[in-house]
């Protein structure tokens, strides 16, 4: 599936502008997607804070502060009585050591009862997908009726530790009783003990940073630098247009304490010219790599939250659900050579399981960690060899570009690791309503060689 960059850029532009709402009434639920004996589980609505580049608007906020904004925004959006919520789950990746269960602290800060349990999950970039599906599982099992799923990441203030040797000395110091013992420990300190440990950015099992993996993946699938730059520029153009048209209605404005202004929009959207993008040097594989700062996602702060319940409970409460959560699955593969191929595996398997074909899907949302990663996954799905020998399925085919990430993605909007999954679900749902369509599939890759695929169906009552 080699693609001419200029022709594809033109396709992109058509895709961005072609998603106008239609006048036909919403269709009813697709009963074939509901498993026998299963419950109609719905997402009532989803919100998020504006996603901001790390070190900017939220630089003084702790993760539970950001997550609290998302919970408060959800409460306001759906007129949610706090006491109706049975359970809260939030995803995060780099945990703040003072609030290891960030969901609990955010819930208490947002005014939920101390009797409402809350837990935090982590699965790298699909952590808030895990939060959503954990809620779905609890509701499907009959444990709870109303749950909140969300996620948060604050890259502006990551935990930096003392070195391991220094930590050991500090722990030993708590047991030192005499002055001599304390002086002996003090004398054993060396300069190397003072070197801090930053959070790991490389894969633990391979030692390779994700950007380097993305570069190798792009090369393996023949994704050119121009294709990556075109795709990244398309993401920024789409996000800019969606922002200008007021389509990103999942955003709830926030005013950080001590800040002088209300933050109401994502601040990482930058539409560069092809010439500007072409000037950038490779960021990982030097000097001949193709991944640059312009075609990779950036460090981002932000939080998200969504309300999950049964269709029956939503009607009882007078809520107008936006979507059914019809199916989901997680995949895992070789973290070295297939680290970022989770979407290809997940899409192939979720389509097979639901019996859907490419033409049955109206909206596609794929997480954009790197432009090369998305394009490699698209080529993998359209490859006879790869689908047969690796995914072990028939070729899926070429996904229609004009249905993919039409409001931008992680390359432009940003990627707070723990919050992106809910953002993907919100975009899938809101695009279905705006475009008057029925079925969405979202997919994402994650560190460790994992991935997620989800099928979302528009609810007949859904409105923006």
UniProtKB/TrEMBL annotation:
The keyword Chloroplast does not apply. Pfam families: Thiolase_C, Thiolase_N. Keywords: Acyltransferase, Cytoplasm, Fatty acid metabolism, Lipid metabolism, Mitochondrion, Transferase. Pathway: Lipid metabolism; fatty acid beta-oxidation. GO terms for biological process: fatty acid beta-oxidation. GO terms for molecular function: acetyl-CoA C-acyltransferase activity. CDD domains: thiolase. Residues 320-458 form the Thiolase C-terminal domain. The keyword Ribosomal protein does not apply. Residues 41-312 form the Thiolase N-terminal domain. One of its GO terms (cellular component) is mitochondrion. It is found in: Mitochondrion. Its EC number is 2.3.1.16. Belongs to the thiolase-like superfamily. Thiolase family. This is acetyl-CoA C-acyltransferase. It comes from Orchesella cincta (Springtail).
